[in-house]
Here is the input.
Amino acid sequence: MLKPSGLWINFSNPFRISGDPVELGPRRLNELPEFFNEMGFDAVNFESKRFTLLNLEIICDETSNMKQLVHFFTLRKNDLNLTHKSKSVQRFFNHNSNVWREIPEIVKGRELTLAQTKSFDGQSCGNERIEIRMAGDFFSIPPDIAILLETILECVNGKNTLKELFTILQEKGIGLGEDTFLQLIYVLNVQHYLIKLSE
Here is the structure.
């Protein structure tokens, strides 16, 4: 807990945010400033360092060592009122008209790529699969999920409200109900942090 203008100095290995998919791994350094800004902190300094854990080379120059990547950053607590943050998690669980006015945007640094790949093992004509790629990590997903994500993310332009996005999906023949659609937005916004919402 920090009062406004208090400093948080961090020195740690790269870490994964709770709720992020395991496949995406730890957050990259360039993803952290915006994440912490939404938690009420202003970025003072962000850099990565490498250091040798338990460096015993002074005692024995043939000793083994292990170099680690660490994130070193300094944050300053701002004095913004963040009481609205609880709403961002709870709004999807209660039926209300406000959520439909929110405008989704792709989170900077969390851009997602869908790629169709084909691999050859010398025994078959080629194994095709669809991969999600983000921040250097990738994993396979079923074709129907890929089509759904592609359709949604193509319409996330920082202008369409959630209501307009839902209408577009209906017009394109994506048969999601309102509750299922809002649950999906919740997953993309809160759990995976691929999109952010603003009114």
About this structure: The helical segments are 32-37, 85-90, 143-155, 162-171, 178-191. The chain has two domains: 7-77, 86-198. The chain has five helices and eight strands.
